[in-house]
Amino acid sequence: MDFSTKFNALLRRVEAGLGTWLPAADTRPGRIHAAMRYSIEAGGKRIRPVIVLATADFLQPAGPRDPVPAAVAVECLHTYSLIHDDLPCMDDDDLRRGRPTLHRAFDEATALLAGDALLTHALGLLVTAYASEPALAVALAADMTDAAGSRRLIGGQVEDLAAEGRMDLNAGDLAYIHLNKTAAMLELSFSLGARIGGASEAERVALVRAGRELGLAFQIIDDVLDATADTAALGKTAGKDAKAGKVTSVSLHGIEDSRRHAAEHAATARARLAEVRGGDSFLAALIDALTVRSR
Amino acid sequence: MDFSTKFNALLRRVEAGLGTWLPAADTRPGRIHAAMRYSIEAGGKRIRPVIVLATADFLQPAGPRDPVPAAVAVECLHTYSLIHDDLPCMDDDDLRRGRPTLHRAFDEATALLAGDALLTHALGLLVTAYASEPALAVALAADMTDAAGSRRLIGGQVEDLAAEGRMDLNAGDLAYIHLNKTAAMLELSFSLGARIGGASEAERVALVRAGRELGLAFQIIDDVLDATADTAALGKTAGKDAKAGKVTSVSLHGIEDSRRHAAEHAATARARLAEVRGGDSFLAALIDALTVRSR
Question: How many beta-carbon pairs under 8 angstroms link A with B?
């Protein structure tokens, strides 16, 4: 199966899973459930849930465990972080995935609460869908609370916000932001897939490292695209970093060196992946695809 | 031991637990961890964590399990909900627990993220502190994601917000709000304490029902106090409901009938409690204390 055929097959499983594992839009109170689905159904690249599925499939090609609830949980978590990031007190953004952001389409309070609800739902899914294997469920949930917590995802967001207008930010500060704001979620995606696929601890650690390197590559490319692409191609507002006076890979290292750094991180990601049972051609191709992307 | 001696002993365990189980204020990024501690250390009545401890102690007087992490988790969850409730897009409140609200003392983005972090931390505590008993940890976390989710706590907040200015709200709508916005957290506190204390499922269900009735009594008293007490006595802004044109127990039923309804719910709570091993004198006294309180 070629890369895009396999990607689309995984994507269909993700989309079907999102339909199944989110509360119906008419669940009381209808407004919050409609808001949750508005943001989830806006689409997006679904990279994180695809990684969960692909990693679990790679390790247990006909395995007994269903990775779909974990994939849905990761997408709920990611969507929560985008909804809160877009709020007026954060990035104050009007456009996300080519549609009005949730607080523009609904209102701020609903967006705040829908984000809270998606975070809660993500963790709820992990501890209920895998409850028949409690040690697995606990490990999945602990991975998520660690990756999403105040020392990782939220820590990265806090320092990212604080960095606006501070042109004295150095490469170490920027690395902290990239590692926590972006890489933590990709590490998490690999870790959940690895646990569900029955990886050894050494294999899981190697995959988490692949996720970290992919995350660093991914964020550098994001910075490059923000500086070079236009809003229509991105589906979100372009040129925000320069406008906000933000230090990015591009402002620190320039576009060409940033692209080279991204390629180096991608190569390391592929090397970590190859340590696990010789690697997986789909995940290797995904790493490549994400580091030459145009949106 | 008399009621207030025992209450204060439990309170000291809660306060010590909060010190132990929250990230230190100087953990990077310092601003978010300082914000989390600002809100937690503002105090409050600590009713929910005290219920967790008292319930577990009642069921396993010299039991092997430490209920303190679960008590801390419940207080983190409660504090998250207050922080987000106080934000400008929600209740827009300046005062909480006698101090400036978090977004006034810090800023809105920090308050948003500190709330997110406390929610994440609450669930992280449950799945890490009880990881040696994974089935217990999973059950505790599932209780919390259920109580805090879009069908309970958040559902109650959504309908509460939507109720502002809608003077046609009926008793059923108000019951939905009270049941989910307030009672869910008290049900959760009893449920966590019951599971940690090794209650049978029938005992746990009876205690959860006690929590529900206590929650309903508690919210009615809150409505009465909002209409009758002053801001200094409450430590939060009084008279908000009438100002916001909100239907409350008081606007629907008047002050005297509201007080009677609260007393009835409290009596039912004591009856449910008494079904479990004959009841517990401290928890019975706590139910009484919470339904004759003045703040």
Answer: 149
* Chain position carrying tokens 């008081």: B250
Q: Which pLDDT tens digits describe chain A residue by residue (295 residues)? A: 899 999 999 999 999 999 999 998 889 999 999 999 999 998 889 999 999 999 999 999 877 899 999 999 999 999 999 999 999 999 899 998 889 999 999 999 999 999 999 999 999 999 999 999 999 999 999 999 999 999 999 999 999 988 887 888 899 999 999 999 999 999 999 999 999 999 999 999 999 999 999 999 999 999 999 888 776 666 667 777 777 778 899 999 999 999 999 999 999 999 999 999 999 999 999 999 998 776 6
End-to-end CA distance of chain B: 24
Q: Is A138 on the interface with B (CB under 8 A)?
A: yes
Q: B26-47 burial, b for 16+ CB within 10 Å, e for fewer? A: eeebebbbbbbbbbbbbebebb
* Pairwise CB contact (< 8 Å): B112 & A89: yes
- Residue with the two structure tokens 């008590």: B71
Domain ranges of chain A: 3-291
Residues of B in contact with A192 (CB under 8 A): none
Query: Looking at chain A, which residue has its C-alpha nearest residue B109?
Result: A89
A23, A87, A116: residue with CB nearest B119: A116
Residue A46: other Cβ atoms inside 10 A: 20
Tell me, which fold does domain A3-291 have in CATH? Farnesyl Diphosphate Synthase (1.10.600)
Residues of A in contact with B154 (CB under 8 A): 32, 113, 116-117, 120
Q: Say if pTM beats, i.e. exceeds, 0.90.
A: yes
